[in-house]
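Q: what does this look like with adenosine-5'-diphosphate bound?
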Amino acid sequence: MTRLQHSQELSTLQSIFEGIDDAIFCHDLDMRITHWNPAAERLFGYSLEEIIDESVYLLIPENRQQEKSDIMRDIIEGKQIGQFKTIRRTREGVEIPVSITISPIKDQEGQVIGSSQVARSIIEENAAEEKQARLAAIVASSDDAIVGKSLQGIITSWNIGAEKMFGYTEQEAIGQHISLLIPPERLDEEDIIIRNIRAGKKVDHFQTIRRTKGGQQLHISLTVSPILNKAGEIIGASKIARNITAQKEAERSIAKSMERLEILNSISKSINEDLDLQHILQRVTDATTRLTGADFGAFFYNRVDQAGESYWLYTISGVPRAAFENFPMPRNTAVFHPTFSGEGVVRVDDITKDPRYGKNSPYFGMPEGHLPVVSYLAVPVITHSGVVIGGLFFGHQQAGIFKEEHEDLVVTVASQAAVAIDNSRLFEEVKDLSNKKDEFIALASHELKTPLTSMSGFLQILERTVPNGIAKSFAEKALKQLAKLNELVNDLFDISKIQAGKLQLNFEPFDLSDLLNEIADTFGQTHADYNLKMSVDGELLVSGDKMRLEQVLTNLLGNAVKYAPDAREVSMMAIRTGSEVRISVKDQGPGILPENQQHIFSQFYRVKEQERKTSGLGLGLYISKDIIDRHGGRIWVESPPGHGATFIFTLPAFTN
Ligand code: ADP
């Protein structure tokens, strides 16, 4: 090599030494640094001036002193140490992971005179490795199944979670097609998933069913994401499957409980509102048959007729009534006894194997053609007073259907049913009594009317014919009292007509303001000491029964006087508002408390405090309401404290 060549080579080496990204430094056998390139400066923080002639051991952390002698030995022996990973210390004392290659430097005789070291930071490499290791640990320890597959659907990776979930080992699964896990009827799901993956789309929380090695079906939630290579191309998919079978079961059981609660709620509501016995029995039978999942259910209910004879009513659910019609009513056999005696619930998985079964003639078991019953549940229905009024029976043709929870549900419904049945019985008794009362009123008022009419005729003649004096004034008083009595009997008579639906109304169009003026005139004559304020808004055409409307108004005015004895003012107003005519009668009396307002329109209702002070039957407002209702109007009272009572009613305005 010529000198020129030599110097050219040197300068090439020099520029490589200067420009290279790896840290390169040399030292002699005393370990003193002789060369230090800019990359070394960047990596370790020492400038060339600072480090030249310093010991190379400066770069070795305290806890790695052992390395010194190892390196020294290898260098002296002239060995090359290729790419070992270790830690070095920077000028700032920061320890950094590096990969180092150490080569001996020899003189022309081949004697080792020092060594060169090439160091490269491996911080990023380490971080990447660490990340990889962490991910691998997560995958390995995950309870979710994490499976990699190619775009052709071939399984490429399989974690422990997948093994636990699906039952296949890694060896069994890898290389297989993913359809291994898919139930046949869901195979097309895979096409859709792969289509999404090819399009770079993720499939998120897709709930589906997969099959285990043992053939068990699992509810899973699937998330499938594309796997990309370094070039960003989709090369496969990673799928994460979470077993949601328990969640699904919990959801199902919640839904079932909700359904049960709803049934229980609706049944308790409907039977408490219902007073019709047959309805109650049917509802209870239908609901409990559904709640127990029975093939059929029956409610046998014992009634006693008016003659004291007991007889059976029953309702059926789940099968047509005809299926039962030809069989005798249950008798007091060993199987039925605990129910009809109220002893307790009978719940048997297979009644045909029960010791109580088949003991009684003539059938010794179920009569021929009877619905097949294997699972059997019977719950007595007992009233509050302890009387057994019947039993609920359920049958299923398979064994072991009825569980404790079903028994509890039926017992709950049975106790509600007993209350409802009691209520309906009371209601029927009250209805019977009420009918008798109505019959009595109808008869009595009818019978009273005839003598009243003739008495009134005779008294009128007497009053007219006797000369003025004490006898005449008695006759007048008697006539007044008779008029009151007549009113009461008329009310009774009206009531019985209303009950029988025979209160006839004769509709005709007329001007209500005329009627109001007539009534006001009469009121003025009979109540001279009262100030009747009238406000009638012109012509007020209505179509109605004049006499009956007069009866309503007279009653309201009469009450305004009767219940406000200390006041001297009553007002009557009538006005047309839209399609209605609105009439009000207002007094200045004590008014009516809110809690009484809702009752005063019912028959025979009188406010307690006034009962003793005033006479009356509590019928006037009831009759008035019936009359107004039948005119298509409304009647109500307004009584703000301290402002008397205002009775208001409306009538549809007449338009021709
Ligand atoms: P009666 O007057 O025969 O008792 P009503 O049906 O006319 O029957 O009235 C029912 C009840 O309403 C009365 O007993 C009374 O307590 C109350 N009531 C009616 N009108 C008034 C009124 N103007 N002020 C206070 N209470 C009244």
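The chain has four domains: 14-127, 142-243, 264-503, 504-652. Residues 555, 559-560, 563, 587, 589, 592, 600, 605-607, 610, 616-622, 645 surround adenosine-5'-diphosphate (CB under 6 Å).
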